[in-house]
């Protein structure tokens, strides 16, 4: 069995990765991305939510480092905060973390990401699959569920993202 090379949080933070990588308990983990369908959906989400920033008092950013715990950093495909944060790396829970699946993604790994966000205190986690045009939502009260009502939504503020408008 090959041994893993572990690095410190400090080394992770002073190293540039292209694309940026997650950091989990000393291990740098590559994120699956790079396909056209992933990029196209990410762009659609950004455009849809960014157009509503002022109205809803939200701030939308792509691939922002989020420190979910002392030894874990995640980079959601898109995250939404209530107003623009004053920190370069988010230490306060975003309002929404959005993950876009790639063909290589597996649910156990995605669920670990979702669990990290929820444990940090993120109230809404959305997962979108461009290949099946399926959306999932997770909250601290409700585990990951497929969205069948036709709209991903939050409360306070009410953010609504109809998957039919972003899947093309």
Structural write-up:
There is one protein chain. This protein has 168 residues and is of the alpha+beta class. It is globular, with a radius of gyration of 16 Å. The model has no long low-confidence stretch (mean pLDDT 93). The protein is built from 5 helices and 12 strands. The protein has helices spanning 9-14, 36-50, 53-56, 107-120, 163-166, and strands at 22-24, 27-29, 58-62, 66-69, 72-74, 78-82, 96-100, 124-129, 134-138, 145-146, 152-153, 160-161. The chain has a single domain (33-166), classed as Alpha-Beta Complex (tt1808, chain A).
Task: Give the key terms.
168 residues; alpha+beta; tt1808, chain A
How do the strands and helices of this protein lay out in sequence?
Blueprint: H1 9-14, E1 22-24, E2 27-29, H2 36-50, H3 53-56, E3 58-62, E4 66-69, E5 72-74, E6 78-82, E7 96-100, H4 107-120, E8 124-129, E9 134-138, E10 145-146, E11 152-153, E12 160-161, H5 163-166
Parallel strand pairs: 7-8
Antiparallel strand pairs: 1-2, 1-5, 3-6, 4-5, 6-7, 8-9, 9-10, 11-12
Which percent bin holds the helix content?
25-40%
- Principal-axis shape equals globular
Q: What structural class is derived from the secondary structure elements?
A: alpha+beta
Average pLDDT, all residues? 93
CATH structural architecture: Alpha-Beta Complex
The SSE order reads HEEHHEEEEEHEEEEEH
CATH superfamily: tt1808, chain A
Low-confidence stretches: none
Compute the number of structural domains: 1
CATH third-tier fold name: tt1808, chain A
Strand content: 25-35%
Q: Whole-Å distance between the termini?
A: 43 Å
Main sheet: strands, sense, barrel: 6 strands, mixed
- Please report the first level of CATH classification, the CATH class: Alpha Beta
What would you report as the Rg, rounded to the nearest angstrom?
A: 16 Å
In total, the number of strands is 12
Number of helices: 5
Q: How would you write the strand order of the largest sheet?
A: 3-6-7-8-9-10
